[in-house]
Each structure stands twice: as C-alpha cells, then as structure tokens.
Write a structure and sequence with these properties.
InterPro entries: FRMsr_CS (IPR000614), GAF (IPR003018), GAF-like_dom_sf (IPR029016), Phosphatase_reg/MetRdx (IPR051330). Keywords: Oxidoreductase. Its EC number is 1.8.4.14. The protein is α+β, with helices and mostly antiparallel strands and 163 residues long. It has one domain: GAF domain (Beta-Lactamase, 2-Layer Sandwich). The chain has 4 helices and 6 strands, in the order H-H-E-E-E-H-E-E-E-H. The radius of gyration is 14 Å and the shape is globular. The relative contact order is 0.18.
C-alpha cells in the first residue's frame, strides 16, 4: 500500500518538490497510461487541499476524452478549443482560471467549482497526450507557484508513459 506523506503545510515550492518525489515513487516501473493516470489523480486529490476534482482528459481521435479522475462524474468528451480543457489543449499552454464564471466558454461539471487549472500533457516530441485538470471550490485557489509546481509534477506522469 502507498501512503502519501506530503504535508499541505509546507511552503508551495517544498510541497511541489515533495509531491514530485511522491509521484516518481508511485509511478516507478509502470508505463500503463490508465494505471498511472488513475494513481496520479488519486495522489493529487488526496494530497492537495481544496480540490473537488482532479483528473485527466486524453486526446482520442481529435477530441479530449475523460480519463481517470477523482471527484464527481464529468463530461465525457470535450472538443479541442472548448472550455478550459479544450483551450489548454489547443494552445498547449497551462490555463490558470481564478474564477471559472468569468471564463466565457467554461464547461461546468460540478456547480461547486470556482477556480481551475489545466496543464497540457506534451511528450518529449511535442505531441499532445491530453490535459491534467484540477478544480477547486475556492475562488483563486491556484496561482503561479501552483502552475510551476503542477507543470513539473505533470511531467512525471508524461515521462512514465512516454517511453
């Protein structure tokens, strides 16, 4: 059994360094995308405070299809360019949304969500695999330190499946 030991009381850079270490240990030796994404989503959901959804959408036949996640049921398919996830996929840039109600094309899955961050998952060759999506019931839950930390942690997942 894997036990998370990351303290949410650490300063953010230390928290994300420890989270990256935990993710590497959790995914070590496994390359299956579904298995690794499932464990990764659970690690984030149970380690990061103030989340109500943590999971993945993977690129399948030109659209994003929901993958492993923790939280309430989600939209199954998202067109590239639609919503926060589709925008992150289209631009290949992290989308940091302090207030989802101010995002013109936000796709609501959980009415409790107030803020969101979506990180595109890119292979070493620059191929889009999908996105990591985190939602919070707290306005402005995510900031630039979260963006930097989550981008680094997301690379751990990509490295585990991009061999």
């Amino acid at each position: 059994m894997f036990e998370e030991t990351v303290s949410a009381n650490l300063p953010k850079p230390a928290f994300y360094a420890e989270l990256e270490h935990q993710a590497r240990a959790l995914l070590a030796g496994e390359s299956n995308r579904v298995a690794n994404a499932a464990n990764f989503a659970a690690l984030l959901y149970h380690t990061m405070p103030q989340l109500n959804w943590a999971g993945f959408y993977f690129l399948v036949d030109g659209e994003l299809v929901v993958g492993p996640f923790q939280g309430k049921p989600a939209r199954v398919r998202i067109a590239i360019g639609r919503g926060v996830c589709g925008t992150a996929a289209a631009t290949r840039q992290t989308q940091l949304v302090p207030d989802v109600h101010a995002f013109a094309d936000h796709i609501a899955c959980d009415s409790a969500s107030q803020s969101e961050i979506v990180i595109p998952l890119l292979t070493r060759a620059g191929e889009l695999l999908g996105v990591l999506d985190l939602d919070s019931p707290v306005l402005a839950r995510f900031d630039d330190e979260d963006r930097q930390g989550l981008e680094a942690v997301a690379k751990v997942l990509v490295e585990s499946i991009d061999r």
